[in-house]
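Exercise 7. Predict the joint structure of the components listed below.
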Amino acid sequence: MFELIKTENRARRGRFTTAHGTVETPFFMNVATAGAIKGGLSARDLKENGCQVMLSNTYHLHLRPGDGTVRALGGLHGMTGWDGPILTDSGGFQVFSLSKLRRIEERGVHFASHIDGARIFMGPEESMQIQANLGSDIAMAFDECIENPSTADYVAKSAARTVRWLERCVAEHERLRANPDALNSGQMLFGINQGGIYDAIRIENMQQIAGLGLPGYAIGGLAVGESSEEMYHVIDVVEPHMPTDRPRYLMGVGTPVNILEAVSRGIDMFDCVMPSRNARHGHLFTSEGIINMNNRKYALDTGPIDANCGCETCRNFSRAYLRHLLKAGEMLAFRLMVMHNLHFYNKLMADIRQSLDEDRFEQFKTQTCDMYGRRI
Amino acid sequence: MFELIKTENRARRGRFTTAHGTVETPFFMNVATAGAIKGGLSARDLKENGCQVMLSNTYHLHLRPGDGTVRALGGLHGMTGWDGPILTDSGGFQVFSLSKLRRIEERGVHFASHIDGARIFMGPEESMQIQANLGSDIAMAFDECIENPSTADYVAKSAARTVRWLERCVAEHERLRANPDALNSGQMLFGINQGGIYDAIRIENMQQIAGLGLPGYAIGGLAVGESSEEMYHVIDVVEPHMPTDRPRYLMGVGTPVNILEAVSRGIDMFDCVMPSRNARHGHLFTSEGIINMNNRKYALDTGPIDANCGCETCRNFSRAYLRHLLKAGEMLAFRLMVMHNLHFYNKLMADIRQSLDEDRFEQFKTQTCDMYGRRI
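Solution:
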């Protein structure tokens, strides 16, 4: 399913085939938590914005509208109208970051819905069942997201349990796919490497899950407060133990500089809420760093957000109009600014791929980080 | 500027030329209060939705971002990117409905901003100056919006003052247009008929303002709580005294049935926040009446809002998806539902025009009101 086209040092240019189309790697997934991009973007907007893969959240969709409802609507593809590849996370991260009254046991996790307090249980089997109902192209293994820092003892025990959970995920995923009516018949299951900031645990865990021969692997448990240097160190430690013929996904990362650094360390896939969340606060990515659209100095600025950007917002609207809409609380502000930031990320990935095609990625990375002033 | 193409009984089919293009009448203006349609619609969306004329609010834009700022950005056309005709109201209605600490005198109105309490004065001259800065194609005269009901004595005095204000508006409008740098060089000024629910005052007022030979006339002070029958009665009383060679605008009206009834009484122009406001609450116009998208029965409904509708929302998204987005508080819900409701209104006007072209408006009106069950 994954074709490694070429490499430049450790950076990789590839092609990844899913049940809903082929994806050029490296790529960035646009986050549609509850089946819609925050800020009022539709599937059509994502297509126009150069998005290749949409990411949705198992936890949110399980709670609302319910994965049974999503399945009845033809899965996420049928419900949202997005006909490209979709990745769903496992729900694990949100169970640990959003829900209340958590209790973890070998079987899985008991928690209370952050919406209405309803008591819910989710384990590896439940996560696979929900993701089957969502009908995503890529399902993620159910894992525990530990706090950072945690003791080596706790991390080791958690990582070992996550491996046992992964084996149960694999079994349940296969069982569900055997159903002739399954929405997940073409779905791939990715394993997730854990181990906190402990090199030995990370390596042992990666070796164990690589042995399962899954179609893709992620590095999880990062982008939770550690420094960028710690993150790069974990990639450096884990990457040599990741299969070269499978896509590698760095979960929840990150800034444009983070992405460039991770690509240079052999990562192929990314996702992050940063572009859409920043946009909703008026913080916009440009080729010269992040600008704050709340700033009074833009009140009469008739230029686009970024003169080098070709997104719908920059082609049609001025900084002054965007600032006015933001100050007036108009939804159009959020829509136009989210479109810009997502376009910025999707364009960055396209530029990375082109530089790899032309054997000049390292040069592109250096120039781009310098251009951003390493401020983003 | 206004060409009356044909009539069917009192209903009129016409063509109205403005500085930013020709408009087919009768038409409905889409309300972009602060220079953007609520719900995240841009100028491009309005075009795709069949909107002919955008309406923006003088009061809101004067307060934020300030009409001086709008002027510096090239007026509303330059700021918003909408290149079609724009009508601005006078600010009068909002001064009386939104602001606090009002004090009315012959010169104008003192009031406090509803945003930050700033003390502001607006009279006929100020309203014309602001609308000149906004650069709209049609400016509305500054008038007092009285409470309903008010005594005949008060209404008569207010209507007389509104005529004096109108004469000052005309003088100031001419003075401003003479400036070679004026954004309002092609701007038309419409007069507004007042008189509450008192036939004699309405008629006398209409005769007085018709004498000024303005390029268009509105009926104001309706849609403020009176019954539909009272509204139709006022139109019946005033319309015979309106010039036939000028467009007639019924301000702030109304439901689809209201519009059909008003067209049959000789009205050409409408505006109302109802389609966008209703949409934000999930109340959607269909060929069978208003449906409430919050209703649980739509949770698994894979059909469009209205099988007879060709809007982007109905072409691409199901009731079930919209209900999910609405329940999840996703901005996309508001955007898609506002697009549908505005399309419904714009399509209604296109159907009205076609029926007039084909000499079957009365039949269309009866069939359509019956189809709605007179529920909207």
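Discussion. Chain B has a mean pLDDT of 95.
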